Amino acid sequence: MSDTRTDASTFNIASDRAAYLEAYHAIRGQTDALAAGLSDADATAQSMADASPTKWHLAHTSWFFEEFVAAPILGDDCRFHADFSFLFNSYYDAVGARHSRPKRGLLTRPSLETVLDYRSHVDGLMSEILAAGHPELDDLVNLGFAHEQQHQELLLTDILHLFAQNPLRPSYRASPPQGETPSKAVALNWLQYGGGEFTLGHSGPDFTFDCEGPAHTVLLRPFALANRAVTNGEWLNFMTDGGYRTPRHWLSNGFAAAQAEGWESPLYWFYEDHVWSTMTLHGAQPVNMAAPVCHISFYEADAYASWIGARLPLESEWERVARRHPLQGNLQSSGHLRPIPQTQNDMAQPAGLFGDVWEWTASPFVPYPGFKPANGAVGEYNGKFMNGQMVLRGGSCVTPANHIRPTYRNFFDPDKRWQYAGLRLAKDI
Amino acid sequence: MSDTRTDASTFNIASDRAAYLEAYHAIRGQTDALAAGLSDADATAQSMADASPTKWHLAHTSWFFEEFVAAPILGDDCRFHADFSFLFNSYYDAVGARHSRPKRGLLTRPSLETVLDYRSHVDGLMSEILAAGHPELDDLVNLGFAHEQQHQELLLTDILHLFAQNPLRPSYRASPPQGETPSKAVALNWLQYGGGEFTLGHSGPDFTFDCEGPAHTVLLRPFALANRAVTNGEWLNFMTDGGYRTPRHWLSNGFAAAQAEGWESPLYWFYEDHVWSTMTLHGAQPVNMAAPVCHISFYEADAYASWIGARLPLESEWERVARRHPLQGNLQSSGHLRPIPQTQNDMAQPAGLFGDVWEWTASPFVPYPGFKPANGAVGEYNGKFMNGQMVLRGGSCVTPANHIRPTYRNFFDPDKRWQYAGLRLAKDI
Amino acid sequence: MSDTRTDASTFNIASDRAAYLEAYHAIRGQTDALAAGLSDADATAQSMADASPTKWHLAHTSWFFEEFVAAPILGDDCRFHADFSFLFNSYYDAVGARHSRPKRGLLTRPSLETVLDYRSHVDGLMSEILAAGHPELDDLVNLGFAHEQQHQELLLTDILHLFAQNPLRPSYRASPPQGETPSKAVALNWLQYGGGEFTLGHSGPDFTFDCEGPAHTVLLRPFALANRAVTNGEWLNFMTDGGYRTPRHWLSNGFAAAQAEGWESPLYWFYEDHVWSTMTLHGAQPVNMAAPVCHISFYEADAYASWIGARLPLESEWERVARRHPLQGNLQSSGHLRPIPQTQNDMAQPAGLFGDVWEWTASPFVPYPGFKPANGAVGEYNGKFMNGQMVLRGGSCVTPANHIRPTYRNFFDPDKRWQYAGLRLAKDI
Amino acid sequence: MSDTRTDASTFNIASDRAAYLEAYHAIRGQTDALAAGLSDADATAQSMADASPTKWHLAHTSWFFEEFVAAPILGDDCRFHADFSFLFNSYYDAVGARHSRPKRGLLTRPSLETVLDYRSHVDGLMSEILAAGHPELDDLVNLGFAHEQQHQELLLTDILHLFAQNPLRPSYRASPPQGETPSKAVALNWLQYGGGEFTLGHSGPDFTFDCEGPAHTVLLRPFALANRAVTNGEWLNFMTDGGYRTPRHWLSNGFAAAQAEGWESPLYWFYEDHVWSTMTLHGAQPVNMAAPVCHISFYEADAYASWIGARLPLESEWERVARRHPLQGNLQSSGHLRPIPQTQNDMAQPAGLFGDVWEWTASPFVPYPGFKPANGAVGEYNGKFMNGQMVLRGGSCVTPANHIRPTYRNFFDPDKRWQYAGLRLAKDI
Fold first, then answer.
1. Quick check: C280 and C288 in contact, CB under 8 A?
2. ipTM above 0.85, yes or no
């Protein structure tokens, strides 16, 4: 039911140019595959300023290769359209002016068809460049791969948000056969870990985002980590116990957000005909009480942990545990496209560290000691966002399997709920 | 170059059932024709809360017939889809709950194709009903005709606004041959009218909106009315004289709006390569300095009049003049889809009273003495909006020719600019 | 219990210079008297952007005389303080830049004491000028009188709003003896009036605001006017009948305002210990069910009229009736400082046309035909506000008795509630 | 010119009850002394939601003792006024409902005089309790001392903000003699520190805030710290180099804030007559280019560090250095009430670690490992704010000398500017 991640180095080490080109097409093709079945209108609409249209994801990822790889080598004449840099630059100030983010959904032109042509055009340029071999560009190409995969996840996340605004509750994909989903989760167990020095972060030649390094040693205290994520059923206990209305469990900003936005359950949940249901990429579905809770904010995760007398893990604690375990789980390629109950025969082993839901940590997204952003415009990729956001770890059911790794740091504002985010408890021992 | 309106009573007097049915199909077909050439995405996007998607206009006008004519006769089983009343009710509280107005642009489903199927379905129901003859419904059917035509105009107005947000500045329709457009406007002349009693408003059996009556007598003072609308060239004088930055010409609310929204020219104007251009339904075009100024708010119209030492006409003054003149002008059927220079051989006759631009008046939109809204939900059509808005008269280049009439009262908030609205000066004598 | 207004012409005709000077001091002294008993803090705070601090009213009215009367004659050296024009100009663009309106409450300096010194200083200058006799300034001085009196009313209105924000519910003045207040209102009766020509507005040499003219003839239709204002008890019926939650009674903008601001009763009402009470200038008091309802918006007044099957009067209808009746009522000088039950032995005569509550009319505040603002900065007094506001007539329990008259047009935005405003019903006959 | 802090344990160890009582009165008396000279109006106004009126600070600190110390012992009858808990509770949800924070400035009643009576009343209760000896309350009393001192600083910070909104630019206190202020700062020097284990945070019996512990060991890397804070003159270089308009120096949220709020210099600076001046507690004063820059946000501090190629210190780095140095500096008791140039004969020693300006660090305000909030309502003191804020260290020119210590963690949102906050640079070595 969940897949084991294939060797990530396939795409990261460019020793074999042919394989590299193949990897390029595989990743690009997966993006196209995710967009298949969406109409021009589906691909155009933007449901909120945080989300982007599918068409924009398709075009922006192409622009990334065009802007940072193709144009510097082939010259500006290679560009598909003179205005596309303005339209599809996301946030790179060093590149220049750009279209207003909240107005992305008003770009009914170019059409989806033209955007797909744009993708083909860029793929042609990149095939030429990768075939010619430009090892000096490997870092940027690798970044382009990772970037494309991030947007694959965002594409799915944003489509769910869009469809959830529609009273018709459309389905993005048919549900996989029910039989494949475990019916219950492993019982909760606290796994204990000793304290001491731990080297956090990435080092070595493989590609990672700049924010995953430098590797550096930290001192951990002994801690316990839950063997699985908090389930919807457990979350319902929090709800029925008045968790959303009891300020003492909450951070001050969190309770203010909950009040202002009227939070009473995870995002997308609704109570109809005496049943809790939720919007998913398969349309409205009953909440699976054994599956990890999803679409909650950091504030909710933190309040839950406080309510139950535990806490969220530090990212260093999470990484220490995750380093020891195989990179497998309910990731995008499993086809579930929603969290499923986390099972594990051995209760002494953690379940679901990777996949299902991104796990909110107690760690603010700040630079590791000695962090330096990359040179050039791509230095804006992560560094300028290192304020006010919280780190999430482990990937989700919509994360590409060969995109995630133990050192991967995702980050979102603490009040955001549309990501596939849940929580795993920790405590001091 | 401009057309004479055919007999409005064609559609209003239901003496001939076959002609009535034909009229139904003519009006409905015209809406379809206006939407032709727009993509699913074009038809879905909503550029601001004031505007609606094309798809929504197409569906809402169909819902109007379904809700107010078909369902009461044929029963709820005749409805195309159980949720469409929720999706496509605009503002009729008496009908029930409805989709949030600012979220109309997120309805990527139903698709444009499904909405066109919905239109066909309703047309089938209406054909049946009109063929059967239900004279008791004539008032509602006539209202449905007028309603459909209002939305034809709004569809065009809203598409222009949407396309104007797109940096690619798309064109909705190819421009008509340039030769058909007069190159200059008639010289400005003040036409003088005596005072006395005048019967304002509609009476008689023909269809009008409820707000056009009751007819009632008012006392007018002698006044002069400009023989044509203010032109873009004249407006440019106001701009270069600092009109937008001089508070003494402005109403207090108007100047505050101008400052808050950064008004420095009519909406859609932009200065590029030393030329003033403007977005039109034919894409970006040079401003035609001889044509009536368009896409201005009431506040701007009022400030211009103050600046030049004149005033806006009362709606009673306007109607008094318009009653005496043929209902012709640059209306939707001319195909210009933008204001053109107003010509007139006889300077003692007004030019362009109908068509080109809606003319802001000095009259707030309030009920005429003795006004009673219609019974039932359609009583919400106009009555509940009789506050805070200003009356406009005469129709525009996107108004259907057989929709406008001398007693027609259009109304918008004084700060709205996306309508095809301009001004004609008046003064006391 | 209510006083008859003394001859208004005392202050308006400047034939007797000594009386004129006396009038000046009487009016100025009344402002001081109203501020007596307020602390420096009371006089400094600003409870919302619409309201102004007492200290500001005291200073601004002095600035008015300094700016428009004293400085043009005596030169700028006569000014009390170089910065006070910046601090205490309200909205006269022609005079220059000014302090931000919503920040008036942050001016803890100058102190109340200094502001009173400023008043004395200006009174000295004005005594000198009025003693010297400058008939050419009479219009401006008369305007200064009327202006001062408007601010007397606003001072009381704004203090009530301020005190109503304070959980301690302070009292501005002790209540007058209860015995003086009638215990019930005259029964509701419809007074009928014929239609025809009526000359609306002021003409003649007496002072009025510019917006009260020019006098002009209008055609009225026969109408009926209620013999008294709507009472609190009647309003409670509207509330208990769900009036605040039923959209069909409301203008669309009105219902939106009621929902957005959570209106469920008149402003200042609160339900405590099973009793409806309300904040007054005498602190919290039980709602007097026989007294006119007060502190309602135009939207609420209109909704009530719609609910009960009547309408609001036009300002022309109101003025036609008021012209025939003595100018007496529960005005500021009665000392009640709140509306009291309207009594009348003769049910064929209207009660309470003047005083108690300003009566919302159905008439937007627009210029009368032929209106021209005064020359100079004082032309901004009324003219630039002739948009979006509704006319109120008749004065209230906090209006100076010699300030009100039948032609007086007060005006406020339709959603404002902090004025002493109520309603009197009208209907067609 | 700067004072050495007296023994903090005076107030923290309650071995001598008489000294404890004396300490109580000394601290309380200092608050009164700071408020002396402010008018009732000065003490009432609230210049923004983040700030509180002087009167509120005076009352809230008294309420703290009444609520948490006196009432539990003496019963609710000891309370001065039944409504004051509602009015003067700041944010303790466990205590109950409270007055709306942004409306604190509307409480013109109780008067300043009544609030001072309230203070006396509470002082009477506390004298009785402290004289009786209640060692079990020492923790709460000590917290009350620290709380009172925090509000002393806030009182001054908030008064400056209030006076800075006043175009008259009032002065809170006369300037101290100019001769006492050094005319230039020590030259910039980088002090180098080795890496390794460091025990961060407080342990031991002395009072600290809960957030200063538990003490725990962290690993530091070698680093350099500037020997003094960044000066106004250095900041001017940043400004003239376009620092405020160059996004690449800024965090993304920071640049957005700078644009949205129009930041072009530190808060309170203004350029007039060719000179940069700034508002201070002594009114408008020329900017002292040798003194530390003050009234900047974390975002600005971070952008400056980025611009100059350095970074902000971690709070652990700062504490490591500060632990070794005497607790002296330009604190509140020096009477300067503004930052002054930092001098130091020995360039190998840091200057101004304590006092002058709070120094923004790169550390988000998060709990130390093992942190547990105190029991009861006072557990809300710090814990619920551990999100989204940044740590500042070292105290400022308005911090009481016996309030600050090396482990002290102050915290504010990264966009706040009204605190006496500046920066000291750090870098990796």
1. no
2. yes
Contact predicate D343/D274, CB 8 Å: no
Q: How far apart are CA B251 and CA C389, in angstroms?
A: 12
Q: Which chains touch B (3 or more CB pairs under 8 A)?
A: A, C
Task: Give, for all 429 residues of chain D, the pLDDT tens digit.
Answer: 233 333 334 444 446 788 889 999 999 999 999 999 999 999 999 999 999 999 999 999 999 999 999 999 999 999 999 999 999 998 888 888 899 999 999 999 999 999 999 999 999 999 999 998 888 898 999 999 999 999 999 999 999 999 999 999 999 999 877 667 898 999 999 999 999 999 999 999 899 999 999 999 999 999 999 999 999 999 999 999 999 999 999 999 999 999 999 999 999 999 999 999 999 999 999 999 999 999 999 999 999 999 999 999 999 999 999 999 999 999 999 999 999 999 999 999 999 999 999 999 999 999 999 998 888 888 888 999 999 999 999 999 999 999 999 999 999 999 999 999 999 999 999
pTM: 0.95
Closest CA of chain A from D314, distance in Å? 9
CA distance C234 to C307: 12
B residues 311-340 lying closer than 8 A (beta carbon) to C: 314
Helix C17-35 × helix C54-65 angle, to 10°: 160
CB atoms within 10 A of CB D100: 10
* Chain C meets chain A (3+ C-beta pairs below 8 A): no
Q: CA nearest B417: which of B290, B244, B286? A: B244
Give chain D as a 3 state SS string.
CCEECCCCHHHHCCCCHHHHHHHHHHHHHHHHHHHCCCCCCCCCCCCCCCCCCHHHHHHHHHHHHHHHHHHHHHCHHHCCCCCHHHHHCCCCCCCCCCCCHHHHHHCCCCCHHHHHHHHHHHHHHHHHHHHHCCHHHHHHHHHHHHHHHHHHHHHHHHHHHHHHCCCCCCCCCCCCCHHHCCCCCCCCCEEEECCEEEEECCCCCCCCCHHHCCCEEEEECCEEEECCCCEHHHHHHHHHCCHHHCHHHCCHHHHHHHHHHCCCCCCCEEEECCEEEEEEECEEEECCCCCECCCCCHHHHHHHHHHHCCECCCHHHHHHHHCCCCCEEECHHHCCCCCCCCCCCCCCCCCCCEECCEEEEEEECCCCCCCCCCCCHHHHCCHHHCCCCEEEECCCCCCCCCCCCCCCCEEECCCCCCCCEECCCEEEC
Structure tokens that stand for C407 in this block: 């032609």
CB contact under 8 A, B106 and A168: no
B217 inside 8 A of chain C by CB: yes
Q: Say how far apart CA C347 and CA B338 lie, in whole Å.
A: 61
Other CB atoms within 10 Å distance of the CB of residue B158: 23
Rounded Cα distance, D296 and D416, in Å: 8
- Whether residue B326 has a cis bond before it, omega within 30° of 0: no
Inter-chain CB pairs, A–B, below 8 Å: 81
Helices D138-164 and D17-35 pack at an angle, to 10 degrees, of 10
> Using an 8 Å Cβ cutoff, are C98 and B247 in contact?
no
* D160 within 8 A of D173, measured Cβ to Cβ: no
Q: Give dist(CA A66, CA C403) in Å, integer.
A: 75
What is the dihedral angle through the alpha carbons of B379, B383, B384, B386, rounded to the nearest 10 degrees?
170
Cα–Cα distance, B347 to D35 (Å, whole number): 77
Per-residue burial over C108-132, b if 16 or more Cβ lie within 10 Å, else e, is: bbbbbeebbebbebbbebbeebbee
Which helix (H) or strand (E) is B199 found in, with range?
A: strand B196-200
Which tokens sit at D363?
A: 């550390």
Contact call for D384 and A221, based on CB within 8 A: no
